[in-house]
Design a protein that fits this description.
Length: 107
């Protein structure tokens, strides 16, 4: 009879490898998850600044960006990333990074 470790071994190895790949993606792909959060918020700041009438006429766009923000923020919490291109607290990032959700659209 095979031991539990032998039966689970390859599955655990694959899970560990998958988690490493996910963390690598979250840290490095297209700037990483924190960069995606920051740019999503920057986009909303830009829309509010340069196209406020568009935002007023299409309020669901803010909802889309907010949904992306919530998803990406929760993903960053659920799968912590300590290595990547843009990580909060690293020398190459702004003192407040990612930026906060724009005040002008907070409930």
């Amino acid at each position: 009879m095979r031991s539990i470790a032998n039966r689970l071994g390859p599955g655990l190895f694959n899970a560990s490898r998958t988690l490493r790949r996910i963390r690598d993606t979250l840290g490095w792909k297209s700037g990483g998850v924190y960069k995606r959060i920051d740019e999503n918020r920057e986009l909303l700041e830009l829309l509010n600044s340069k196209a406020p009438e568009f935002v007023k006429a299409h309020p669901w766009v803010v909802g889309w960006l907010e949904s992306n923000d919530e998803f990406l923020t929760q993903l960053a919490v659920d799968v912590p990333v300590s290595e990547g291109q843009f990580i909060p607290g690293q020398l190459n990032t702004a003192s407040v990074f990612p930026r906060q959700w724009p005040e002008s659209v907070k409930g």
